[in-house]
Amino acid sequence: FYEHCARLPIQVRRVRIQHPGRPTALTMRQQTEVERASIRRGERDAAIIAVLLYTGLQVADCARLNSTDVFITGHTGHLRQRSPNGKTSIVQLPEPALDRVVAWGRVRKSGPGPLWLGQRGRLTVSGITQVVLAVGNAAGIDGLRPQWLRHTYTARFHRNTASGR
Fold first, then answer.
1. Extended strands (E) in the chain
2. Are 65 and 116 contacting, i.e. CB atoms less than 8 angstroms apart?
3. Where are the transmembrane segments (predicted)?
């Protein structure tokens, strides 16, 4: 039976199944709405969304940022990303994120300490996730998570790399 079936010209197409609950990238329209909603919510929230959306940082790395991890010179900016295992890397801040971080820096005032401050001090991963959820709700995207912003960054990176930009 199996030998007979092996000789039959059967073509099988691979079916892609979207897994429920799996993070997806935002469309350009959704990204625009998220950015607008974050600006309406204030400088801090706009800066958090911009950093997650334009650097691809994980939410835990974003929560660990200190004001001394931001380097701005002229029209360029960088973030020093510190991982829990002690590794450090430098991440470029694209112009939209740079503008938002500079605006947040003016409101936050200079000085050492956590970059993202809430009512009780440093924003935690949970606090940043709550900011992203609130911005998503304001933009009409229920259940928006920081991982979606990371996926959006990755999708944009691959799209721009593939098109040669």
1. 70-73, 76-82, 88-92, 117-118, 121-122
2. yes
3. none
pTM for this predicted structure: 0.82
With a CB cutoff of 8 Å and minimum separation 6, the contacts of 153 are 52, 53, 54, 55, 56
| One-letter amino acid for residue 141 of the chain | I
DSSP 36-79: HHHHHH-HHHHHHHHHHHHH---HHHHHT-BGGGEEEETTEEEE
Q: Give the type of residue at 37.
A: A
CATH architecture of 24-162: Orthogonal Bundle (1.10)
Domain segments of the chain as ranges: 24-162
